[in-house]
């Protein structure tokens, strides 16, 4: 198969979808790989490293899209890329269709085969291609939250871990999945007083067993959320419904419960956000303030640590990408239920229910296109 890796052009997205080691694996299986010039530079991988591994370097993004049968990316195509995508071209990337009606309709119109990292799902319902970036984003949410609690950043001026004789910050984490667990671990490591909330009592029991003493578990419901955020210094939104919009657990009215300078970090913003007032921001302009509350809503948080993120992501995606290349997308999806669940749009049809429901568009069973 002919595989293309374009340079990411979303604002401050520094990751790349394939490492030189990944190129070598594809070459071993007889595939041809085209990499856009400088695609890996910001992740620490030079064009010469790719060339030495067997890739062909192309000068422009247009050339990559034009020649490739399968495009491997990190982030969803942006508007300037829509016209480059061809009919029946397989695009394997994070799409997050439920947060963008324009992207959804564009991919239907382009008649592309859209296989989304975020909905590839194992039999135990875990999301193997979302996990590594969720781990990075969860840890980063505390790192960024701690920074924006500083007074020059319009925060309360609180040190997350406090010092002897001074209370640490109070951190509330909404969601006990991968993001929430990693966020709670990091906040606890800083020395903060942490409350992690979830709707699953079984998950809370598990978290109670593995978390240090400065982490408290709490059942997630409207009353408890209101109580918890009222004296919080940092709130992390970490709720995910695979392939669908995240529910709004904190409404605009609830901001009045929080004191000015409180920081909210909505890691779910690329799925619509679980804090109603959050809208996607960039690493260039990461925050805004509503009712005195500092909102950090960067939709590609791991892009700020591209070396770590690229290695973590490609460790997870490469085995699946090899199956797609070796067998073709139809055979690979027929033989692997995990990959089949990654199909979101194909042959001009939405084949993932959460995406269709998000925009009130027609849904087709995936069997109709396989």
UniProtKB/TrEMBL annotation:
Keywords for this protein: NAD, Oxidoreductase
Q: Which NCBIfam families match?
A: alaDH
Domain Alanine dehydrogenase/pyridine nucleotide transhydrogenase NAD(H)-binding residues, every copy: 149-297
Q: Which organism is it from?
A: Flavobacterium keumense
EC number(s) on file = 1.4.1.1
TM annotation in the entry: none
Name this protein carries in UniProt: Alanine dehydrogenase
Q: Which InterPro entries match?
A: Ala_DH, AlaDH/PNT_N, AlaDH/PNT_NAD(H)-bd, NAD(P)-bd_dom_sf
Tell me yes or no: is Oxidoreductase among this UniProt entry's keywords. Answer: yes
Question: What sequence ranges are listed for the domain Alanine dehydrogenase/pyridine nucleotide transhydrogenase N-terminal?
Answer: 4-137
MF GO annotations: alanine dehydrogenase activity
Highest taxon in the source lineage: Bacteria
Family assignment?
Belongs to the AlaDH/PNT family.
Reactions catalysed, semicolon-separated, are: L-alanine + NAD(+) + H2O = pyruvate + NH4(+) + NADH + H(+)
């Amino acid at each position: 198969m002919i595989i293309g890796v374009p340079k990411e052009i979303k604002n401050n997205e520094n990751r790349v979808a394939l490492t030189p080691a990944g190129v070598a694996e594809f070459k071993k299986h007889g595939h041809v790989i085209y990499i856009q010039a400088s695609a890996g530079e910001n992740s620490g991988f030079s064009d010469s490293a790719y060339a030495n591994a067997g890739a062909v370097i192309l000068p422009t993004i247009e050339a990559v899209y034009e020649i490739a049968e399968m495009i491997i990316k990190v982030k969803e195509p942006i508007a300037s890329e829509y016209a480059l995508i061809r009919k029946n071209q397989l695009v394997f990337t994070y799409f997050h269709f439920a947060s963008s009606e324009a992207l959804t309709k564009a991919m239907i119109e382009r008649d592309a085969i859209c296989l989304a990292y975020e909905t590839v799902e194992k039999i135990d319902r875990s999301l193997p291609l979302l996990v590594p970036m969720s781990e990075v984003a969860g840890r980063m949410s505390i790192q960024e939250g701690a920074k924006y609690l500083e007074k020059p950043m319009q925060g309360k001026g609180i040190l997350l871990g406090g010092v002897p004789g001074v209370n640490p910050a109070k951190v509330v984490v909404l969601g006990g999945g991968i993001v929430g667990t990693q966020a709670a671990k990091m906040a606890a490591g800083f020395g903060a007083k942490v409350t992690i909330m979830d709707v699953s009592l079984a998950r809370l029991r598990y978290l109670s067993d593995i978390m240090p003493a400065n982490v408290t578990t709490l059942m997630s419901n409207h009353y408890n959320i209101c109580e918890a955020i009222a004296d919080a210094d940092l709130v992390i939104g970490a709720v995910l419904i695979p392939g669908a919009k995240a529910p709004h657990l904190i409404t605009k009215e609830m901001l009045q419960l929080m004191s000015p300078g409180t920081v909210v970090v909505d890691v779910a913003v690329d799925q619509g956000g679980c804090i109603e007032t959050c809208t996607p921001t960039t690493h260039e302009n990461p925050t805004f303030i509503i009712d005195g509350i500092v909102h950090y809503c960067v939709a590609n948080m791991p892009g700020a640590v591209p070396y770590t993120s690229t290695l973590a992501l490609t460790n997870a995606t490469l085995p699946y990408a090899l199956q797609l290349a070796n067998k073709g997308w139809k055979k690979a999806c027929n033989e692997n239920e995990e990959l089949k669940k990654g199909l979101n749009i194909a042959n001009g049809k939405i084949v993932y229910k959460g995406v269709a429901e998000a925009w009130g568009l027609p849904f087709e069973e995936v069997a109709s296109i396989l």
